[in-house]
Q: What sequence folds into this?
């Protein structure tokens, strides 16, 4: 897949990975073995029919491939860009036994991009069932849950505290990795399903979850508020000016467009030498945003090695190409400031890997006497987040000891009819895991509301509709939920 | 939504906006705030809810024109116009409790925000002493509103043109000297004023609560920009506050962190003022041409 030259792209916010051409996609699709017992499907948190959509690409039935994709994943253009495929579908690909795995993610992205460009959308026939369900937050977990519930016939409202929807897709992931038009387009698909999106709504404070059920007429509620509350380390100097969380940096830039200050009002005092603590995807985003906004030097400080880095392999690779200086096996000890309270540097200590800890990763241990300093005028914390306290402050819902929502294996919470999923249950994770949770919660919600699982069937446009599906008339009794695309128009 | 239904100018720097938002008016509790974006390119600014009317479905914001955004809003926010975004109520509501006697201190931009708490204390049955401070008599507003809910109302002016000649701490001192049974002091205003109030009550061990106004982006606990040190621990002003124990707040750190964007704020203000001047000059030119 073609990419922008690193030297060029550090000066712009355009997308780094340019995506496949049609020919490249067709060639890559041909590499799939179409295994009789495909392992990739179970490697995907939302169980996309991967061989199915790849087969359709091979058959040059692109619309058909899109239809197959949409059954399981409403957001292919997003997932193709941000999923860690190397540890999911591609990790278990049979081809990977001997060669590079089939680039499922890139194919997915290409398909999603074609759909965005062509304006494709799949509107199944939806028979309203009278149930009203609410989603709290408009990130990947809520979007997925909302789509599934809308397809099942529910009246769905999504509440978002920010002024635009998308959650972490919007405020967290930068433009060069996930362009806004992609988010807009995929969220538009949601509104086409009849989902209502209410921004500027802080659930918990404007109205509580209990009020949603008791006063606002919701039959079920999904909480997908994400993790939020950024962590700091409690080392000296954290309150100095120039220290901020990656969430703050990214929100200022991605959501509030601080990079366009003063055309946009939100400021950001970007440093010349920026040190980012942590090595996850958020850390990579913070570093690469800093480079694009003109930082001369960007350091990554991580207490383990590259092998343990939680970021997608591609992100670390891209950051490296763009000139980030990695300080592996390094932990900050103190942030140094001047008399005016501004950051001037950081003192670090070298680490080595010791015995494995509870997470199975080898625990980093400080090497005595290995302390060293470097100059920096901005320090960014990207070491994860804690649970956002608002829902807990305003609801009787049961939380676990870390403050995350306590949900069972079906994602049911302590309040009947209320489900939760994504980072607010698991702590910081990935977009696709949140989407998987949204789907699972939708399944549980449907069971709770007594909605029988209905198969949504799309008729591919490339095949001439003959008024029948599998030889059965569309209007026939048992297929009341099946309508042909033409009948909708 | 977010339509401005009334506006009142208390002085050339302070103005009141009444904004339509029935759900917010219903949900708001004393001590909470909203985050406002005035237009599509605007920044998110936290503003304390100075009043709310559940019957009318409105909230009241009292704004001091001090920077680019608030000066611009002073020009553009007219009755019938809309704000781009209003979200809230945010923050933990003030604990009103069952106090017998309280002092509510409001200075500068804190005068209006202290009102909902003051009213709530009164309605909970407390004996309420209100202390407000202004630079001079001309800047005084809401005297009638305050007097309605205060058992005693003390006005302080910097120049002595009305009430006590001095800062709000002089009024606070007076109240404390005259009443030995005060159970709580609530102080809202510029950080330097809240710090002074904390130092006034600290030697007496008198419980004092302040409402902090750190720089924030989202207001929902997500960015951590509003972190403050309270009793040596890191707290987020937006979701852990805005009310904190005044004797435990590190005000010097708060003051320092409020200066984070001073050069940028100045840059934005100068650019905007220049644009205003150009617009004005262009307007004058057009007028001149019309008359010729």
A:
């Amino acid at each position: 897949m073609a990419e922008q030259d690193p030297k060029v792209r550090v000066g712009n916010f355009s997308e780094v990975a340019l995506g496949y051409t049609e020919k490249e996609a067709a060639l890559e699709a041909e590499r799939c073995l179409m295994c009789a017992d495909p392992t990739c499907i179970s490697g995907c948190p939302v169980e996309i029919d991967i061989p199915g959509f790849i087969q359709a690409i091979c058959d040059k039935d692109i619309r058909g491939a899109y239809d197959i994709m949409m059954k399981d994943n409403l957001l292919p253009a997003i997932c193709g860009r941000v999923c860690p495929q190397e540890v999911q579908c591609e990790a278990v690909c049979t081809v990977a036994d001997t060669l590079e795995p089939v680039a499922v993610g890139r194919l997915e992205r290409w398909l999603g991009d074609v759909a965005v460009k062509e304006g494709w959308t799949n509107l199944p026939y939806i028979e309203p069932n009278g149930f009203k369900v609410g989603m709290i937050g408009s990130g990947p977990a809520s979007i997925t849950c909302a789509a599934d519930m809308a397809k099942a016939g529910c009246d769905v409202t999504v509440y978002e505290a920010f002024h635009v929807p998308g959650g972490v897709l919007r405020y967290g992931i930068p433009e060069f990795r996930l362009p806004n038009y992609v988010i807009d387009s995929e969220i538009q698909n949601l509104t086409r399903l009849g989902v209502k999106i209410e921004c500027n709504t802080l659930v918990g404070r404007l109205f509580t979850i209990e009020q949603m059920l008791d006063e606002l007429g919701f039959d079920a509620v999904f909480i997908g508020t994400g993790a939020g509350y950024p962590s700091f380390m409690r080392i000296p100097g954290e309150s100095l000016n120039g220290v901020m969380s990656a969430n703050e940096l990214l929100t200022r830039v991605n959501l509030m467009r601080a990079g366009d200050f003063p055309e946009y009002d939100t400021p950001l005092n970007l440093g010349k030498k920026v040190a980012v603590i942590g090595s996850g995807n958020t850390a990579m985003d913070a570093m690469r945003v800093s480079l694009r906004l003109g930082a001369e030097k960007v350091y990554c400080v991580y207490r383990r090695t590259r092998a343990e880095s939680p970021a997608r392999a591609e992100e670390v690779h891209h950051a490296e190409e763009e000139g980030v200086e990695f300080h592996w096996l390094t932990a900050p000890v103190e942030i140094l400031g001047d008399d005016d309270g501004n950051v001037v540097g950081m003192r670090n200590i070298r680490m080595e890997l010791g015995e494995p800890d509870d997470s199975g990763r080898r625990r980093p241990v400080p090497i005595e006497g290995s302390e060293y300093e470097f100059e920096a005028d901005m320090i960014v914390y990207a070491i994860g987040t804690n649970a956002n306290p608002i829902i807990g402050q305003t609801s009787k819902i049961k939380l676990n000891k870390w403050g995350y929502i306590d949900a069972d294996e079906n994602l049911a919470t302590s309040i009947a009819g209320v489900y939760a999923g994504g980072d607010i249950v698991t702590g910081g994770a990935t977009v696709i895991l949140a989407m998987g949770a949204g789907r699972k919660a939708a399944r549980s919600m449907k069971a709770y509301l007594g909605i029988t699982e209905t198969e949504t069937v799309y008729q591919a446009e490339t095949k001439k509709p003959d008024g029948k599906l599998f030889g059965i008339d569309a209007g026939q009794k048992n297929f009341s939920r099946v309508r042909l695309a033409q009948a909708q128009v | 939504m977010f339509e401005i239904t009334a506006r009142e100018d208390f002085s050339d720097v302070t103005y009141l906006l009444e904004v339509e938002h029935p759900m917010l008016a219903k949900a708001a509790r004393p001590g909470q705030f909203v985050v406002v974006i005035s237009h599509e390119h605007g920044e998110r600014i936290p503003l304390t809810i100075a009043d709310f009317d559940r019957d009318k479905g409105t909230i009241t914001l009292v704004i001091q024109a001090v920077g680019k955004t608030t000066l611009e809003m002073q020009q553009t926010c007219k009755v019938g116009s809309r704000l781009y975004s209003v979200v809230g109520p945010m923050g933990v509501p003030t604990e009103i409790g069952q106090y017998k006697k309280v002092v509510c201190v409001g200075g500068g931009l804190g005068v209006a925000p202290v009102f909902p708490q003051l009213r709530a204390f009164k309605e909970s049955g407390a004996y309420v002493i209100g202390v407000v401070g202004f630079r001079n008599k001309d800047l005084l507003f809401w005297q009638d509103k305050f007097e309605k809910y205060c058992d005693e109302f003390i006005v302080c002016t910097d120049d002595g043109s009305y009430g006590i000649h001095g800062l709000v701490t002089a009024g606070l001192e007076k109240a404390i000297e005259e009443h030995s049974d005060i159970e709580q002091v609530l102080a809202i205003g510029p950080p330097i004023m809240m710090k002074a109030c904390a130092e006034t009550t600290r030697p007496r061990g008198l419980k004092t609560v302040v409402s902090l106004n750190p720089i924030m982006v989202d207001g929902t606990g997500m960015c951590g920009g509003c972190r403050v040190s309270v009793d040596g621990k890191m707290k987020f002003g937006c979701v852990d506050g805005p009310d904190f124990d005044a004797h435990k707040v590190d005000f010097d750190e708060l003051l320092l962190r409020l200066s984070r964007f001073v050069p940028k704020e100045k840059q934005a203000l100068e650019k905007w003022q220049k644009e205003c001047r150009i617009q004005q000059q262009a307007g004058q030119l057009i007028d001149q041409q019309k008359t010729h």
In short: Confidence is low (pLDDT under 50) at residues 458-467, 474-489 of chain A. Residues 43 and 88 of chain A are 5 Å apart (CA to CA). The longest helix of chain A spans residues 431-449. Chain A has 18 helices and 16 strands.
